[in-house]
Design a protein that fits this description.
By secondary structure, the protein is α/β, with parallel strands linked by helices. It has 11 helices and 6 strands. It folds into 2 domains: 154 residues, HAD superfamily/HAD-like (Rossmann fold, 3-Layer(aba) Sandwich); 65 residues, Putative phosphatase, domain 2 (DNA polymerase, domain 1, Orthogonal Bundle). Strands 3-2-1-4-5-6 form a 6-stranded parallel β-sheet. Bound molecules: 1,6-di-O-phosphono-beta-D-glucopyranose (B16) and magnesium ion.
Length: 227
Amino acid sequence: MEIHGFIFDLDGVITDTAEFHFLGWKRLADEEGLTFTRQDNERLRGLSRRDSLMALLRGRAYPEEKIQEMMARKNRYYLESIRSITPDDLLPGVQELLNEICAAGLKSALGSASKNAREVVARLGIGRLFDAISDGNSVERYKPAPDLFIHAAGQLHLPPRECIVVEDAAAGIEAARVGGFHTIGLGPPERVGAADAVFPGLAGVHLQDVLQALGGNGLPSAKRISG
Ligand code: B16
Ligand code: MG
């Protein structure tokens, strides 16, 4: 196994913006007289803004103009919430793992379906730790299509087989697998069990743990291939 890069999902991996997405969709649903629960929100994990709205509308037909207006309204609510994000909102273990990847001479990219990913990364103060950012503005087909991760790997100048994708959503794991990437799933096996290896989260997870979980030889090998 030759690994030269990592591609990280944002929401649910680097920080937990799922609650802000939930509050935005919930406010919109209430205004429109639609039912929307936290459980419904779980099913939107990793899906694009439009796919999320379509799930929330449950097959009801709306004119395109109204769809655009609802997406813009939800995004206004979301943008209001993410103003409160600070470096304290990094999920446990993220900073440490990114530092280890950097120190080992491996590359890192962000692969997020969110069109607001750059703003969130800037507020978290971790922009300098990524060699590339691919987000909801980078591709036309979203997860579970592999396009976003392929775009990120392209920016790193690496083939998918040399990259590990770290994801918290079933749609993201599927996208990475279809694209030919190694996959680390974060969360319950019912959700991310299709990944090559699963961790509850990144707290206490070191680069060596990730490489070993994927059947590699651990950190010394990573250093050798990267040098
Ligand atoms: P936006 P990820 C995804 O981020 C979220 O998980 C998903 O809930 C959201 O709908 C999607 O981004 C689009 O976000 O409305 O900001 O463009 O998990 O791919 O980092
Ligand atoms: Mg996610």
